[in-house]
Amino acid sequence: MLASADAPLAERARYYKQALSLILSVRRPSYYLGQDTAALADLTNSYLRRMASEGAIARSLADAALAVPLEIRKRAGASPVIDFTRQKGINLARTRLLSLLDVRSLYELDRLDLSVRTSLDVEVQRGVADFLRSLAKPEVITELGLTGARLLRANDPGKVIYSLTLYERGHGYNRLRINADNLDQPLDINAGAKLDLGSTAKLRTLISWLELIAGAYDRYRVMSSAELAAVDVHPRDRLSAWVIAHLQANRGADLRSTLESAMRRQYSASTAQRFYTGGGVHTFANFERADNGRVLTVAEALRRSVNLVFIRVMREVIDHYMYRAPSTTARLLENASDPARGDYLRRFADREGTVFLRRFYEKYRGKTRDEALGTLLDGVRVTPRAVVVALRSVWPDMQAADLAPWMARYVPDEQYTPAALDSLFNRYPPEKFNLNDRGYLARVHPLELWLIDYLLGHPGRARGRSDRRLCRCAPGGLSLVDENQPAQSAGPAHPRPAGNRSLPGIAPAMATARLSVRLADPFDRDLDRQFRRSARGARGIDGHHRQWWHAFSGTPDRGPALCRRHALRNCLRGYSGRG
């Protein structure tokens, strides 16, 4: 407009004056554009006269602009209403481009000069979005027959959100054709929400179950009747047992007929049973109470979405994975005479202990005693008992008076007299509690106390080590080893006052009983007797071992009072921290 000589002078003057006023308002935008627009008009007119007098603009343009009043809009015009349902495909493409182009924000993306082609079918996408949006109208719901029982008869259909994703299968890849929903918000239900629906979970369970049946069919279909009868199937592997029985009764059955027969298998829908899962004991309910006493086929349960049938199918899948092979852990643990149990326990203890010790070693190496104790106590919910037990576990020559600054730092709300500190100090001597008990009282992992105590006694092993050094725990002590070098003994513990029973002091004698401790099977009496003999032999060396013996077999007064399961629990508690 301004550059066109053919444009009307009045129009050119009006636009010129508006552009000039905006440039001048930059000096004080909130004042000129908000508080005093008349002052901006006067300033603009003065510049027009000055520019005309100096020949910067034509006199005719200046006179025409001076004659035009300066109009400033008080508020911005209403933004056009955005239909977000029509933007889902475009926004999905823009979001994917952020990662493809390594752009940090949509703001930066919108400033790139580029053209993008997608696999989305624009016309079909628009039609699907319009149809999903129309489902908010009651008359459309009625026309589609969606007003039956448990559908949309008594509900507002406008509150239901629908989404659809459609891919077209190609050679080696799938093309996204439709990405639509009826939510009139920027959120993309398909790409930005994670849906976990009961019916889809049933479908996933069914697919997994049928795949396992197909796999079992492939393994057993080539066997003769005699070979099928000789297969060792665990009683809890009901899936393999059914496939074998089906093949024995239907020689020559193909995969399709086998899967169809599997869909006709019957399961109880009873809700009376409790199921043990990773989250504990659970009970489940059916959608229809009338199904609680029924026995249904898998096909009927899928059609009617009966929960308990699929809970039992899921349990069958789990049991199949646990018991299908003779060497599975589940079979090993239930067979008390299996010699591999001891090896399994040893590997478990090694792995768990190594994980925790490596973590604690990186946390405490190179620290002084006060730094290590500060790091330890800063990471737990501190109580007076926890402070005392933690300090005394790693500070062998500590006195009651040394407690005062630590109690003032970590328990500032408590006021202790010297007599109270002395009483608290004498209440928790380390020789009175084993390592597990001290870890419990201090609210920390027992191995954390043990490692701090060891590193303080072996400063040469705690400093100057490369990160490739590993921590490995054994009941005989701690070994710091290179990944490519064999483990070496940690050596003798640092000197301790007489009567102190911190863990590093028991290393030599515990090495004697190491094999028994590490391999003791809580359900094997022969190994248990060997374990006790080794422990009794080690017990007489010094007072440290009496504490260790108490942890596994009870007190001398009561004899071996603790059962073997309790002994195993105490053994593993120090490794896994799950006690």
State the distance separating the first and last CA atoms.
83 Å
Number of strands: 8
Radius of gyration: 39 Å
β-strand amount: 5-15%
Strand order of the largest sheet: 1-2
Main beta-sheet annotation: 2 strands, antiparallel
* Poorly predicted ranges: 462-579
Percent of residues in helices comes to: 40-55%
> Which shape, going by the Cα principal axes?
flat
Whole-number average pLDDT?
Answer: 78
Q: Please tally the helical runs, counting DSSP H or I stretches of 4 or more residues.
A: 29
How are the elements arranged and paired?
Elements lengths: L8 H16 L4 H7 L1 H17 L5 H9 L20 H13 L5 H4 L12 H13 L3 H6 L19 E7 L4 E8 L7 H4 L5 H23 L4 H6 L7 H12 L5 H9 L2 E3 L6 E3 L2 E3 L12 E3 H7 L2 H17 L5 H6 L5 H25 L4 H10 L5 H11 L8 H8 L7 H10 L7 H8 L3 H12 L1 H4 L6 E6 L2 E6 L24 H6 L1 H6 L5 H15 L3 H11 L10 H13 L3
Antiparallel strand pairs: 1-2, 3-6, 4-5, 7-8
